[in-house]
Amino acid sequence: MTATVxxxxxxxxxxxxxxxxxxxxxxxxxxxxxxxxxxxxxxPALLFVIVVTQxxxxxxxxxxxxxxxxxxxxxxxxxxxxxxxxxxxxxxxRGSVVTTIALTVTVVLVxxxxxxxxALLLDRKFLGRGIVRTIMIAPFLVVPVAAALIxxxxxxxPEYGLFNGALTWFTGLFGLPxxxxxWITNNPLMAVEAALIWQWTPFMMLILLAxxxxxxxxxxxxxxxxxxxxxQLFRYMTLPHMRRYLELAALxxxxxxxxNFDAVFTITSGGLGTANLPYTIYQxxxxxxxxxxxxxxxxxxxxxxxxxxxxxxRSVSTLxxxxxx
Amino acid sequence: MRSVNRARKLTIAxxxxxxxxxxxxxxxxxxxxxxxxxxxxxxxxNVLMVNNPQMIDLQKLTADSFTAETGITVNYxxxxxxxxxxxxxQEFSSQAGQYDVASLSNYEVPSYAAxxxxxxxxxxxxxxxxxxxxxxxxxxTKALTGEDGKLYAEPFYGESSFLMYRTDVFxxxxxxxxxxxxxxxxxxxxxxxxxxxxxMKGICLRGQPGWGQIFAPLTTVVxxxxxxxxxxxxxxxxxxxxxxEAVDFYVELVQEHGxxxxxxxxxxxxxxxxxxxxxxxxxxxxxxxxxxxxxxxPVKGKIGYAAAPVKETDSAGWLYTWxxxxxxxxxxxxxxxxxxxxxxxKEYEELVADEIGWSSVPAGKRASTYDNPEYQAxxxxxxxQTEDAIVSAKPDDPGVQPRPAAGIQFVAVPEFADMATxxxxxxxxxxxxxxxxxxxxxxxxxxAEKVSEKYQEQ
Lengths: 325, 458
Prior knowledge:
A: MetI-like fold; flat; B: alpha/beta; D-Maltodextrin-Binding Protein, domain 2; disordered N terminus
């Protein structure tokens, strides 16, 4: 809807007397007033949204420019960009940026592929499909910190974990000694990723399954009548249809996994090069009690996320493009 | 297509909403404050404490005992350890006066006292004849005394560290554990018991990153090897030969005869390992004995307890206590003192014994607890060694050289937690074989020097 005032057409006669308003102008003013009458009641809600979503962020930005360590309450002062300098010169912080990117990309891509495979299987009709679907969703319903604890203690632990127990049982069948790998120490980042993939595959599956079930079946039937193979159906009909769902799943998954804290905190305590950004910020806040530097790190993360997300949404994704069509 | 369009709009709105929460959670730190009701009047006291089992018992027993006797209502705020630390550091540093009493540890008390954030207890709790300050174990009193010689907190319960080992395994292998072993003897024994039972390693030592994880036992090893984090003049000593030798020893011992999965093993993992017969020895907190001797423990009655291993010092055990400190800005000073006097008293220990059992008593602070026949019976295998370990701890002089600040397994300055945690991640990586001890400690030296600068300026 447009509320712009239209300029009078060139051949229109001038108004006879000053102050006289053409019916067209009146209509425009009326439309404008009408538009505001409709918007005005919404303003408090908009204000509320701004307060709720943006004020904490603004406070964080302010704090990030203050040199503020809670252990020294008398030395709180404006610190300029010193906190940002500290963030960018801190080797731990730079390392955790790389770790965060590696962790997020791996987890999102692998769980997306696995989720798609599971969704394709669950899209078929078979006996007990409802039960299987519920079972598949279960990992996503487990509280994240509980899931991380299960992985650390019940599965990975080299002494009493299930993996090494299963190895012992399996090789025991042949009377052989079992290799007892130390899963987390050998592949620390992969151990964290595996636990996250286990939890996030069901999420991807849910979104992709919804996508699969919204396919227009008549068109697919027509294609099949025309002699398209299953692969061709998948490649040229299902996949293009699924693009938007894949993008949405990847977007939401990335947003959540960038923030993941539980798995890193529980499984490795940030050791062996697995400290990601949320963990490093946690350390800065809870152990160094450096509110300024922690806030600066938080601001950098948000700016980075927004920049990447905007880039991804604008250039790669079809989500926003189709919205503007 | 309208409805499709609307559905699409919804998903976009959803993802924007989610993105907004990213922004929010990134700002989680900024707010702070809030929570807990605080109002004047001397008939109530606001207590901030950690959610350990002993504190939960205290919370349960307060209304029928303390409040019934004194008419003072106690408002508890109970939080997990990390949260409670963040909370009381904010609360005390700003002297907000929202809480009257907090469960502090002997890590915080010296610096809080130096900053003037705590009310001295010499004329209130410590002067009470019923409370009997002389019954509190000497190292505890010492650890909670400020540089000005005043007492700033009363212990609720405490612990030291000692060496636990499987007596049955040692007997079967024909080995004996000295009462006061040296680290060299322990390393020998670890090599000999390694593998005597299938899947059994020699010793469990913490390797999990964290100043309160790996660096609790490791700093006691550094102390007794003659090393220190800082010398008397705050010069960082992390890459000194003694510090390096101690960490080398520790890392080598864990790599060769230690538990599997050492870089992630903390207190819980080692407790499991000893209970499941996966290790023959364990050097850790005296409080572990309670779990090892519990009725459902598979190794009940099979554990021997020896003093913390030493090298160049006479004793090496650490000292840790949760203790009640009263905030100077607190509004209910009298009620707070009464509360502290009650919670750390003999009577409270007896109350817990009556209501819950002797094994749940907040022990490790009073000589009388260890003289009590009933407690001796309940803690028969370990009470003597625990008392000896606590009594022999020297919080003001744990090593071979004078120290700039108090603390055995830590240096009681606020910067230590962050610095030691960062160093611990590299030491943990050294145990995993990702880097050498020298590399880890040279990074650590740099971190320690930053702390040096701060204190040398003053």
